[in-house]
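Notebook entry, cofactor series.
This is the third protein in the set we're modelling with a bound small molecule. For this one the ligand is magnesium ion. I'm keeping the input format identical across the series so the outputs can be compared line by line later. Sequence and SMILES below, as received.
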Amino acid sequence: MSTPEMNIEASGRPRPVSNGMKRPRAVIFDLDNTLARSFEAPALEMSQGLENILRRIPVAVMSAASFERIEKHLLPGFSVSADKNRLYLFPVNGAGCYTWENGAWRPQYHFEFTSEERARILAALKGSVEETGVGAESPKYGKQVVDYDGYIAFTALGLDAPREEKIAWDPDGSKRRTLRESLQKKIPDFDVYIGGTTSIDIMCKGVNKSYGVMWLAKHLGVEPSDMLFVGDALYPGGNDVVVIPTGVQTIQVAGPHETETVIEEILKACSG
Ligand SMILES: [Mg+2]
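Returned structure with ligand:
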């Protein structure tokens, strides 16, 4: 739940304020378009900012990315002295959680699709692409469908598409909304979200970032409203919006450049 202190505007264009953020008990960051550009590693300053927060409070990174991608993109930015015992990694939109224990990342929980579910989702996706034309005619750069355990992502231009082309492909989100609506009707027993700039995420029903937020609150023994979630997709249909009903405080950012400012505000709140 947003609070006046956070200065969050209903328009979804919140601005962090310099005086008044309450110290959160934990902070959760989305990865793509929040800590880093989609499918890229965070900048060094971002990693250092996260590490500074980790010295004070638990930090979670909750992403559509696989554990392997989070491990590859996020973790190398931390120094050897980073307090990884306070770091929680939630890959696949909260379908799993990994924590650092005795020198290794270990799963705390993990959901996956059955083979029947996987086949039905892929058939529906094929049908919706044909029906809407979204993603059917564009040039392809690598794999279009990525099948993780517990999560299937459709990336219209392919996983390896150049960033400029991805940004230019669907600037107002209308293509992704069209595809999402078509697909959600075909598989109402799954959840379908807009993911990154060209992607749609399909998840087990009810297993999403809100599940991760609730799990973390319970694990830390705090109320969701004492935690802060920072993400770029808190708008309707976005893959972060599901966290709002948990009561977690939220800040929407337009990209990593705004997240850097939010991190400064968090550090101020933690040291004040
Ligand atoms: Mg994002």
